[in-house]
Specification:
The protein is mostly beta strands. Helices cover 1% and strands 59% of the residues. It has a 24-stranded mixed β-sheet that branches. A three-stranded antiparallel β-sheet has the order 8-7-9, with no helix packed on it. The two termini are 24 Å apart.
Length: 649
Amino acid sequence: MIKHRTWLTGIAVCALLVPLSAAAADGDKSYSATLEAGAAAINTNDDIKKVNEYSVLRTQNGVNPYGKADLNIHQSGLVFDGSVRYMDPVDQDHSANLDVKRVFRTDFSYSVLQHWLDHDKMQYLDAAVPPPSSYTGTAANPLPLTPQNVPAFWYNPNPGTLTSAYGGSSATAPAGYTAQQIGRASVFGEDLTPDAVFKIKRTEWTSKSDLTIPQLPNLTFHFKYRNEDRKGMEQSIGMSKCSSCHVTGQSRNVDENTRDITTGVTGRFGLLTLDYSFMNREFRENAATPTRYYDPALSPGAGVPATYNNNPTGYAFFDNRLLYDYRDGLLRYDETPDSKKDSHIIKAKMDLPGSTSLMGSYVRSTVDSGKTGEPGNFSFNGNNGVTLHTTYDAYGGKLTSTFGKNLTINLRGRAERLKNDDVDINFSTIANSGTPTGNNFIPAPDSLATRYSSLSRDTVTAGIDAAYRMALRTTLRLGYDFQLLDREDEHLGTTKTQTVKASINTRATKTLSGRATVTYKVIDDPYHNPNAALTALTTNTFGSTVGNGATYGISLYDERTANLTNQPEKVVDGVLSGTWSPSPRYSVTAMYRVKREENSLNSSSWDQTTHSPGLTAWYAPGNKVNITLSYNYLNQSSGTAFCQGWYDG
């Protein structure tokens, strides 16, 4: 791998600071303003997004003027604060706050931000395909590497030997051999837009207002408006299956709009405070959905003798569930549907005697996606059956009490229910791949299957926290959390998580302070994919050929035994930090973190250890100037006992 070094430089020159201020004699009026003007410059080599993914000076190489301004007005119960920051057209933010005698308060903000996105060249997939020099048709006529022409192997079932042949076929195989494609021979990647530049411009307007009517002093009415636009282009990656694993990347236009309207009211009635809010959100994707052609579907078991394994059709069974290929023309994929969301939130807080408070909350959200079913292919098994519908309900509570001056205890709990529509899929499979070789499929009978949503679940969370002041400037904190996550799809199981956390903060002297934290987590049955890999290979699994035979699909896919996941079962996380502050203008902080994660599934194991020390020095030579110097080091090692030796696809 070749790594390129990227440099980012920024400079602000010709800065002009003009402070303006005035104060009335009676002290009731004041005005102040600050104006800053200058120039910003950036120069990068190689890939700008590696060092300027979110810009802070300007978004592209070059030099541009910039400006910043602040205005503050305080006069006879009127308070106004405004600020403007303009770096370039896609790097700016502005805000304004107005308070009219504490009766009406409003905040307004506008920001523009550009996000450079990554461009996956997918060259790493070439590691799964041997180079053409390793597999040639003939010495005089080497075959090019294409999705339809990948390395193959000639296989002889007796005595069971493999001979490599680039682009080999049964017609050119030696006597007694058949052509097979196995393992790393079936992965191919193409970047269809190698010169594209992917980036998103994000524009956001927000406005938040509070109104307290003097005749109703216990009530405060709220209103919030938010509008966000995301426009640009991003990379869209898709894949064809039941041929080579052909992975392609192409461009996808983005023109998204999200609009939120939130209203609510807060009431204060002595020891009781109530708050209610309602939010309506609409999301729209105005850009066209990308389309693609899918590769010709190939049967891996074509041409099996009619007498083989009592198979009268002469073709291998492949658990065929192929619904389309290139003959269906351009098909939509990577679609972002429109959606609407309504959310109700109720909160209550009661201040009880004895330094005790009780809080409760309820949340009700519904989301209707613009994604609709396709007649004859699939439909949503929900309350309307046409569009995807999701509901969320959550109940929460917290009790906080202080005992004396040294001990505070928090008890908390939360119950959540998330329900997402299941999908009924109608299978009408294709019977013939339509390729020149005439590979045929055994068409599976039309059938109906239900894809149960992995989102639907019930979650219960409970915990207790305690903070104890052991001595002057030293506090000990202990906590325990329990979470039970019961997924509706029984194949995904129930996950139980227990977390114990302890920390101690101390200020040993006026200049030296420290903190130590240890977290231990145990997860029973983390989210995993059951029976995702590892078919036990026996003499009769594939019949007489590798990756072929009358029971190929049933043997290879339906008899997998290994569970896979990237989630740990045990986590130990420790952090130790200390700060030395000899003066208000100087401090040094040292930190060390170590984290150990591990998982033992039914057929594999995984562990990961992370060490991360760091050092930060801070110095403020003046009231308006400070310098920070930081160093961080990361060392992470992972190990797995799972061997992937046969199949990439």
